[in-house]
Amino acid sequence: MSETDSGPTENVGRRLARKSDGVLMRRWGGAWIDFIAVGVIAFAAMVALAQQPALISLVVALVLALAYFTVTEGVWGRSLGKLVTGTIVVDASGRPPGMPRALIRTLLRLIEVNPFLLGGVPAGICVWMTKDQQRIGDLLAGTYVVRTRALAGARVRAPDVAGFD
What residues pair up with 147 in beta bridges, in sequence order? Predict the structure, then answer.
């Protein structure tokens, strides 16, 4: 599909998000995989810093957890959970969102996807209720979580759409 077919304002991320059937359950599964990964990272940091004051260990663990999401999603569009579940976070052009957008998603994740604050239920409700299957972090960052296969298919079918090289 070219720009003229879809209109110059067509948002590739939005179009794919609307077609991503079953993405809610994939997102939920990916979130739990990421909770485990972040838990392992935080535990390893706290063990490595066992001789330091507890506050320092806690701060380092939190920074590593925030970096895990910001870097993996910002650079590659995929955390371990997204890799396993076949999803990817993209911006409007269908590319990985970059660090600033990933940081916005990550900071909002602390509230809406926190396993200790209703286990991600707020994010799930938001994804379920929004037309583009976005949680609040996605809405504020301008990002979409789509199936990796759908994105690859869009790139094959639409090489002339803005954002696809």
Answer: 87
